[in-house]
């Protein structure tokens, strides 16, 4: 902290920090005033949070201006934790507390017996410490085994013995996470998972400012902004928020996934670790990035995937990272000068898909790997349709129908892949004509050609084996009239 900050209670009282309007200001008033100042300046409210400008952010602003405790209600991967952690930017740069206080005691209105006794003994010479804004944020993940002791505190018999105190003395108390967040922000993730009796203690300390620890009443008039998160499904299914606590949460803010592919791509581009230290130039084709993003959009509408669990925005982020890594490995092994991900690299990164989807019964029968491949193909088809919807691909399909085959694996250089693509009539010309790849750019051309072939696989015009071989479309066997589903005939 700067040396210009007051270091004693007397000096603090004479400084601007001791002005009456600063002394009587709660943490919610502090956040409200700083929020008003930021709104006057304009610009983005929280850095790195995209897509909520017209939906979620106005609700959060209203809650903070109203000095409400609030809950963010949304599926996984919707930036709930990031929003809560960004609230610290609305706190002052530094806050004065009584030095040595475990609960960030206000020098002008202490709540702990320790601080009151120290001020009574030292007066204006009471030492003052300063804490930064990040130290005023406390976050806890709610789990069924969290106890009152974790959140509020517990009696410490060792402290009682050493200090010669009776157990009912406040000085014997070991404070939990909530009192230590006094004059700051306390965030509790997955609130419904918190045991009912702990929720009772939580709302009691929120509203009345008191709680019983091991049968001893403790008065703690805390000054804190309480923020919660919950999954809509867990809100009523896996756990439950008790009515008195729910009633004391001022605002319920509902989050959501990106509403457009373009917005999702912006979030993925911001969050994915793309710039590597390998010395190789990275170039991610925009249509490859779009395919990656559309995988998540396709998954969110697939009936075989549990919608209540959601498909996290972390899916396209990790898929893109895996695709880049696979292309990076190939570039190193083949001696290429740049890293350019292709469709085969997305397939290689399918582990980032299967690990982030919860399957319904139908999905379990098919299998996660099969669904992942289908999602990739559907995403490729949607991307190709968006960029070259009505283009004629008959020459390409006819070549495969005539017995042509092409194997594309993820360990072959882009130059070699492009040369192989040139053997397919009209394919390389098509990607140039629709603007997917310019003439002479073989790395981008190879990626674009793979996109076209994957779109044709999705349309069942051609086939693709798990080994990466494109060939003639597989014809599904037709059942004879009167043939039942078990393959047997029906007697006349």
Sequence-ordered SSE layout with sheet pairings:
Blueprint: H1 9-14, H2 20-23, H3 27-41, H4 56-65, E1 70-73, H5 80-86, E2 94-98, H6 113-122, E3 128-132, E4 137-141, H7 148-151, E5 153-155, H8 157-163, E6 173-175, H9 177-180, E7 184-189, H10 196-207, E8 210-213, E9 216-219, E10 224-230, H11 232-236, H12 243-248, E11 251-254, H13 261-271, E12 281-282, H14 286-301, H15 314-334, E13 338-339, H16 343-348, H17 351-354, H18 361-366, H19 368-388, H20 394-401, E14 406-407, H21 414-421, H22 427-433, H23 442-458, E15 462-464, E16 469-472
Parallel strand pairs: 1-10, 1-11, 4-7, 7-10, 12-13
Antiparallel strand pairs: 2-3, 5-6, 8-9, 14-16, 15-16
Helix pairs in contact: 13-14, 13-15, 14-15, 14-19, 19-23, 21-23, 22-23
User: In CATH terms, what is the architecture of the largest domain?
Assistant: 3-Layer(aba) Sandwich
The biggest beta sheet reads:
5 strands, parallel
Subunit arrangement of the protein: single chain
Shape: elongated
- Number of helical elements: 23
The parts where pLDDT drops under 50 for at least 5 residues are 483-492
Mean pLDDT: 88
Under the CATH scheme, which class of the largest domain?
Alpha Beta
- Can you list the strand order of the major beta sheet? 4-7-10-1-11
Radius of gyration: 30 Å
Report strand %.
5-15%
Count of the separate structural domains: 2
Q: In CATH, what is the homologous superfamily of the largest domain?
A: P-loop containing nucleotide triphosphate hydrolases
Structural class, from helix and strand content?
A: alpha/beta
Report the strand count.
Answer: 16
- Measure the end-to-end span: 94 Å
Q: Helical residue percent?
A: 40-55%
CATH topology of the largest domain: Rossmann fold
